[in-house]
Amino acid sequence: MTLMHSWKCVQRPSFPVIGREKECKFLMSLVGDNNPLTPCIIINGPSGCGKSHLVSSTFSELERINGQKWVLVSCLESCCSASTSTVSSKLLFHLVLQAIKLRYLPNAKMNFHSCDGAADFLESLCELLMHIGKNAKGTRVCLALIFDQAEKIRDADPLLLPFLVRLGSLVSEQRNRGMAGPLSQFINVMTILITKSPWEKFSSGTFHLEPTVISCSSYSREQMANILTSYSPADASQSRFSRFVDLLLTICFPVCRNARELIHLMKFNWPAFEDPVIKGVVGPDDEWGQWKLAQPTLKRSLTTLYLRPQAATDNLLAVTQQQQTVSVALELPYFTRYLLIAAYMASYNSRAADKKFLVKNTGKQSSRKKRQEKKAEKTSTLLTGPRVFQLDRLLAIFQALTQNESIQAPMSCLLLSQIACLVGLGLLAATSADNAVGGLHTAGLGTLFPRSVSHVDTDPLAGPRYRCLLNLETAKAVAQSVEFDLPAYLTDFCGV
Known about the structure:
One of its GO terms (molecular function) is DNA replication origin binding. By secondary structure, this protein is of the alpha/beta class. Helix content is 48%, strand content 8%.
């Protein structure tokens, strides 16, 4: 049975930032005492070099010291769909305003549904700043808008990036025109863009005011060792854990410098290094014996790098809990889960089984037909893989599953757009390029309106076909989240 270890740090220590002391000091000098020296800061560097952790830790410390106000918005959340990954300016503005309101003005009665462009966003932002300034009671207020994964903005509206870079000066002009009294001079806005792309890929040198760029390089081996050592379990020997970190970096650091992945590999491989000592197989000072026992697991980790495998354990309950934890991470809207369940049933059930499972009165089956079905050789669909199904069959199963719900799911374009989102997330697969391209705009719209027969037979977008890519365990976890007994509706479990 695998022994469990209690780690000191669930998250990385917040402050000071290990390995980023120089960048942290420079960032704090730029922000100042609620009086920023630059309206826009670009923080770039490769993935896993601590950019987001640097910004969040620094501003958390400034919030504690000076009352610095800041909000963090992910540009990935503002993509208009999972299949196109294009940032929507309207959605990004809405996320920023909602983040400010929920954090600093939770009781304010404001509505931002009419934020259709940059002008409306600027007006709503100044209104929020005015309320924040009133609550500050005359003290200087600086609001930092932090945009994570800002490389997504390159594919958005060409005017969005210049607008975000000049947002501080635009707010100053807007507040001077619309805010009366001395309150306006105490309110400042700055923007921070966190990206893994260099600033040269964003700008062509035509900006009126170039932002300040802070470049973060990959961690050195010494810095990575200090970061990993800060995660040492509470019940572990510091010297033995330092030896383990050194061995881990010897194998994995030449091929991976991503801090997140190395932290995961450390937690994944530490039991293989520590458990033999606890069980008495090797001595606590037998470095060669510990290395020999842990070496197969460490080398196996190189073949599964970035795949996040689950640790093998003899405790079946622990495995079940880990699988449920991974499956729960698949968070989807309520009716989208039913849509995913319907797609799984369509892929792993035959058309004849739909009537048996989803129609209440299917009629009496003759004994001759029963004998024919009993003699027919059947192959498990779980072994042959998912079948292709058409959109009209998917929607028919979905309607049958949700007909007993208290709130009926409306057959709208929003529901159909969820199919394209599931394709973009890799949960469904379109069987042709035409369906993949037209899935968001044209997939299945013909099922809602009358069509000519010739158009249905010739147009691939009129009847798109998909395949469900979920495995059985994930599908059962999604079904369990809506209290649906999925095995009772599969032919492989019911023998239908």
